[in-house]
Structure formats: structure tokens, C-alpha cells
Write a structure and sequence with these properties.
The structure is a single chain. Helices cover about 5% and strands about 45% of the residues. The protein is mainly β. It has two domains: about 130 residues, Phage fibre proteins (Triple-stranded beta-helix, Sandwich), CATH 2.60.520; about 110 residues, Phage bIL170 RBP, head domain (Immunoglobulin-like, Sandwich). Strands 13, 15, 16, 17 and 22 form a five-stranded antiparallel β-sheet that branches. Strands 14-18-21-20-19 form a five-stranded antiparallel β-sheet, with no helix packed on it.
Length: about 270
């Protein structure tokens, strides 16, 4: 047969099968999860210690049970990464099913990576995935660390680029983007520096950064000053526009108007 179901009676479920399923359930996100010390790092000379914790890497649960020690290369810089390396073989001892059976897992380890990290798709033929935990810079005898890891489901924050005629509304909520999984929330208040004529069909307001752009044109009605409303349009190129400002008929947008922005939409990760 060329069709199967892994979660079927009497069937075998391999680590590869499990990883594919769990990765999909986690929206193909690899991240630290809230366990143990969450891989807290410390440094002494060129030696770093990574604390206990767990991470999901391409659907695989990885755990540091006791603090791990790693010696950094001198006069270098790079990334401290938790590496899943499927090119390695695990060591086994004893007999399967007996109490003496044990596996030494060699397919996961810590590494000081210089240059670009590798993040293959392990569920589609890839071999290596390096999850960054911290950046390092070293001299001949010492090193400094900057934590880079993020918790699973912790929102990723982005900032739109305001265009020439717009700025942050004084005293208002900053215009920010929050992404959790593939759901994006855009929120904040901005204002126009100059009057905007209604003869301008739609006035460009801001541009969204990559990773926060919807795969479809998104439109929603927003609150303006007083009784006025406007249509916010976000296009697939990341450009956001203000159109049809008014409260029944389109009117000029006076300089300094309060333009509240709030939208929630999905993106393709």
C-alpha cells in the first residue's frame, strides 16, 4: 500500500513521524518553552554555562537536564546554538525491551557557531537545525553574551515605518505589530503632519516589515477624530493606506487628526 496512518492500531510510530506531527501542531515554530531555567547562560572567561530547559525544534522535544558547559573559541564572535544534527548516529546498549536498554543521543548538542546558522527543514529531508540561544563575542581570555532565544508563543514585536506625512500621535499608544504564530495584531495611534485632501483617493500612511504582511488585501473601518471614520487598507506589498475619511461624506483630514489604528489578520509564516 502507498497510503498509511501512523496512529493506527498495531502500527509503528517513529520519531520522524512524531516530529512531523508535533511540528505541524506547533505551527512549524522552533523555540524555547517555559521549562527549567529556560537555558539561562552565564560566562566565566571563555567558558559558558547553559542552564536547564526545554525547546521544541522542528517538532522534537530537546532538554538540557543538568547545566551544560561549552568553551568558546578565542578572538571570535558568533552564536551559541542548540543543534539538532540528524547526520549523527545515536549509541545504544543492552537489548530492546530489557531494563538494561539505553540510548546515548548524539543527534543534539550545544555549539558555538561562527557565521550564518543553519536551519534546514528537518521534516522535509533536512539534516541540521541550529536554534540560537545567545550571541557571543570573545577576546583572548574573556567573552560577553547577549541572549537571543524567545519563548514559544511569546509575541514577536515589529514596528511599521511611518511615511512622510505621518508621525506618532502625541501621547498616544505607539504603532506596533504583535505576531503570535501566524496571527498579527496592529495597534496604535498616529497623526498627519499636513492636511490631506479628499481628492487624494487613498493616502499612504505606513509600510509593514517582512513577516507581518497579509497574503491578501485587508480592509477595515477605523476611528478618526470626533465622529469621523476612515478605511484602513493594507495591501500585499505591505503598504497601508487611509481612504474615505469622514462621517457620511468624505472631508479633508485636518493636520493633527487622531487616527486610531487597530487590525488583526493572519499571515503565512
Amino acid at each position: 500500500m502507498t497510503i498509511t496512518m501512523y496512529q493506527a492500531d498495531r502500527n509503528f510510530v517513529t520519531p520522524v513521524n512524531d516530529a512531523s506531527l508535533y511540528s505541524a501542531l506547533a505551527r512549524d515554530t522552533s523555540a524555547v518553552i517555559n521549562r527549567g531555567d529556560r537555558f539561562k547562560t552565564s560566562v566565566n572567561g571563555l567558558t559558558i554555562t547553559v542552564g536547564t530547559g526545554q525547546a521544541i525544534i522542528q517538532g522534537r522535544l530537546v532538554e538540557i537536564i543538568d547545566p551544560e558547559v561549552l568553551v568558546l573559541p578565542a578572538n571570535s564572535s558568533g552564536t551559541i546554538a542548540l543543534v539538532v544534527d540528524l547526520s549523527q548516529d545515536n549509541d545504544v546498549s543492552g537489548t530492546v525491551g530489557d531494563v538494561d536498554y539505553a540510548v546515548t543521543v548524539n543527534q543534539v548538542y550545544l555549539s558555538a557557531v561562527s557565521g550564518t546558522i543553519t536551519q534546514d527543514d528537518l521534516n522535509n529531508g533536512g539534516v541540521i537545525y541550529e536554534l540560537p540561544l545567545a550571541n557571543f563575542t570573545s577576546t583572548a581570555t574573556t567573552a560577553s553574551l547577549t541572549t537571543t532565544s524567545s519563548l514559544l508563543h511569546q509575541p514577536i514585536i515589529g514596528r511599521p515605518t511611518l511615511l512622510a506625512n505621518y508621525k506618532q500621535y502625541p501621547g498616544g499608544e505607539p504603532l506596533l505589530l504583535y505576531k503570535s504564530g501566524n496571527v498579527v495584531t496592529l495597534s496604535g495611534a498616529i497623526t498627519n503632519k499636513y492636511d490631506v485632501s479628499t481628492s487624494v483617493g487613498s493616502d499612504p500612511m505606513f509600510t509593514l516589515p517582512a513577516g507581518f504582511i497579509p497574503p491578501y488585501s485587508y480592509r477595515t473601518v477605523q476611528q478618526g477624530t470626533g465622529m469621523n471614520r476612515f478605511m484602513l487598507t493594507v495591501n500585499t506589498d505591505g503598504q497601508a493606506y487611509n481612504a474615505r475619511y469622514g462621517a457620511g461624506s468624505n472631508v479633508k483630514i485636518p493636520k493633527g487628526s487622531w487616527l486610531n489604528v487597530f487590525a488583526t489578520y493572519t499571515v503565512i509564516n
